């Protein structure tokens, strides 16, 4: 966006307050290109201009007020990712040990389901073993409750 100050030759309407900017006073001009078509190439752009009082009859700096209002309308960035789980330093080692055990168990369950378990590679899933692993997983979940709690994607 280009912004400059110029003398108002005839009359203009202030974008911010909607009142007339009298001829032969200075005003702020903002020029920008409005893209109608969102396609990468092509699409039509229109040159748009906005006019603002430098200072209106009430002493309001319309361009400045408009800019501040626009900045406040802009959505605030949302922090990415999940909030960090707070774990006391003395519990961190135990917590990461539990998480490691968990991923080992999950891998073993996957192997069972895929038929690449303890057996020949094409074994049908051993549901007894899967159930046993599931119980181990639940026990770990109970255990980790004392060490920062289970992560959301447990
Ligand atoms: Zn104004």
Task: Outline the structure in words.
The protein is of the alpha+beta class and 154 residues long. The chain folds into two domains: 2-73, first zn-finger domain of poly(adp-ribose) polymerase-1 (2-Layer Sandwich); 89-147. It is 36% helix and 19% strand. It is built from three helices and five strands. It has helices spanning 62-73, 89-114, 127-144; strands at 2-7, 12-13, 20-21, 26-35, 45-53. The strands form two sheets. Strands 1-4-5 form a three-stranded antiparallel sheet, with no helix packed on it. A two-stranded antiparallel ribbon has the order 2-3. Helix 2 (89-114) runs antiparallel to helix 3 (127-144). The radius of gyration is 32 Å and the shape is elongated. Zinc ion binds next to strand 5.
